[in-house]
Amino acid sequence: SPKNPFFPPKLLPPEQRMVLVACGPFTPSDSVAFEPLSDLLEVVARDRPDVCVLFGPFLDAKHEQVESCQLLSPFSDVFHLCLRTIIEGTRSAGSQLVLVPSLRDVSHDFVYPQPPFPFPDLPKEDKARVLLVPEPCTLDID
């Protein structure tokens, strides 16, 4: 059988890992309150997964308040508040956090392939556990 050149065989069996995967949007359709995101962060705090992979959209271009320009803050401010909420909300669980953009993220490049989210003010204590990846990407967990 042909060998897979991308993934070398593991010599030791991997440890069991808990991976939580969630897809946006993380707001209800009638407001930009992030209640679904808050519920998700409670699950992360309770279950303490090793890895959380979150797919956008984080601020959905198809949200009615975005489409009708009813937001009181710029898109980038709402988006950064959302990212800060996610990063701070997963800090105590110690989960490795992977953030994947969506073509419907209103504050990000809607080209394909998508570059990772820019987040230059990522807190220093979170840089080792927060991974901003492009879409598409390949993740090797463990």
Automatic annotation (TrEMBL):
Keyword presence, Nucleus: yes
Main localization (coarse): nucleus
Which Gene Ontology MF annotations are present?
DNA binding
Q: Which UniProt keywords apply?
A: DNA replication, Nucleus
Coiled coil located at which positions?
A: none
- Gene3D superfamilies, sorted: 3.60.21.60
Q: Which Pfam families does the annotation name? A: DNA_pol_E_B
Question: Which part of the chain is the DNA polymerase alpha/delta/epsilon subunit B domain?
Answer: 19-142
Name the GO terms of the biological process aspect.
DNA replication initiation
Q: Where in the cell is it found?
A: Nucleus
Cellular-component GO terms for this entry: alpha DNA polymerase:primase complex
Hey, which family's this protein in?
Belongs to the DNA polymerase alpha subunit B family.
Protein name as annotated: DNA polymerase alpha subunit B
Which gene specifies this protein's sequence? Pola2_1
